[in-house]
Amino acid sequence: MIKLLFSLYLFVFVSIVAINQGSEYIWKNWVEHTPDEFSHAKQVAKTLQAHLADELQLQPQLRGLDIDSIAWLPEQRAELLNAEIITTYDEKGHALLSFLLKDEVTLVQLGPFLPAAPISKKIYLYKFFSFLILCMLLVLWLRPLWLDLMQFKRVTEQLAEGDLNVEQKTSRFSAISDLTEQFHVMALKVASLMADQKELVSAVSHELRTPLARLKFALAMFHQTHHEQIAGMQDDVQEMEGLIEEMLGYARLEIAGENLKLSPFNLTELVNEQISKLQAVSQKDFSVEVDEDITINANAHYIARVLQNLLQNADKYGKSKIAVSLHKHSEAIEFSVSDDGEGISEDKREAVFTPFVRVDKSRNKQLGGYGLGLAIVQKILHWHKSKCVIEDSHLGGAKFKVVFPD
After folding, report:
1. Residue 364 has pLDDT above 50, yes or no
2. Domains of the chain (ranges plus CATH)?
3. Which parts of the sequence belong to the Histidine kinase domain (predicted)?
4. Who contacts 55 (Cβ-Cβ below 8 Å, separation ≥6)?
C-alpha cells in the first residue's frame, strides 16, 4: 500500500510540474507573441506617428482632426501630449487608435478595429487542456492497475464457476504487481485444493467401496456360530456404507452447483407431494397450511431435496406433531416446518448447518443421518440466493423457515 501511495504521489507531482512548465513556455513563446489585427494596427500607428508629415491627403484611411475637437479626459489628453497612442471605443464597441503628430495639434485616428479576443478565454482554454493532459496521464498510470483488478475479478469468477485453469498475466508496470502475484499464488492453491477434493471423491468412490463389498461378502459366508458378532459387524458395515454415500452425495453437490439450471415450476404441488410421501410412512399428526398455485423459478429437483430433508428432520426429532406452511407475501415466499421436539438453543442454531455436526444427544446417528442433511439444505438454498433460519416453534420445538425471493 505504501508503494502504491508513493507511486501515485510521485506521478501526480511530476505530471503537474511538467504541465505547468510546458504551459508557461508555450504561453510566453507562442500566445503572447501571436499577432492579431489590433496589435498589428498599433505597430502601424507607431510607424505613422514617427514618419507621417503634413501630407495626410496621401493617406486616405487617415483623417486629421484637431485635438480640441474631442472632449478628452485629462489623463487621455496627457497621454496624447506625451506622444503615446491611446485606445478608445465607439458606440459599437470597435476600437479606435488615436495619436498626435509632432505639431501636438493634429490628431490622427486609425480604425475602427474589432477588439482582440479577451485573453481570459485563452487562459481558461489552456487550463482546460492542462487538466485534460493530466487526466490522460493518470489514465495511463491507472491502466495497469485497472487490468490487475479486472484480473482479480476474472479469476474469482473462474474459481466460483469451477474452472481450475488459473492463468497469471501480471503487469510489471502495475503498482500492485506484488499483490497480484500473491493473489495468483493463493488462487493456484485454491484451485489445487478443489482439484484434490474432486480426486478425493473419486478415490472414496472406488477405493472404499471395493473393500466394503468384499467385507460384506465375507460376512455372508461366515457360519452362524457367532451370530451376534456378525450382526454387529454387519451394522458397522452398513453404517460405513451409508456414511460414504452421504459424503459422496454432499461432495457431488459442489459439481452439480456449477451447472445449475433454473426453470419455473409449481411449488405448491411439490410441497403437497413431499408431505404426502412422509405421511405415508410417519405416525405424526400433520397440520398443513399451503397457499394454492405458488410458482417459483428454481431447480425443482434440488428444492424437492430441501423439502424432503426438512420434513424428515421434523419427523425424526418431533414427538407427535408436525406443522407445515407455505405462504406467498408481497416480496417473498415463505416455507416453514415446525415440530414439537426438544428444539435447538439459539447458540447452536448456526452450527447445525455445518457438515457432520450434531448439537446434542437427541440428534445423533442412532436416529439416522450423519450431520449432512441440513448442510445440504443450506448449500442448495445458497445456490438459489435463499437461506434457512431456525426459530422457536409454536408447538414447542424447532421451526425451520425458508424464504424464497419472489
Report:
1. no
2. 2-119 (no CATH), 263-405 (3.30.565.10)
3. 203-406
4. none
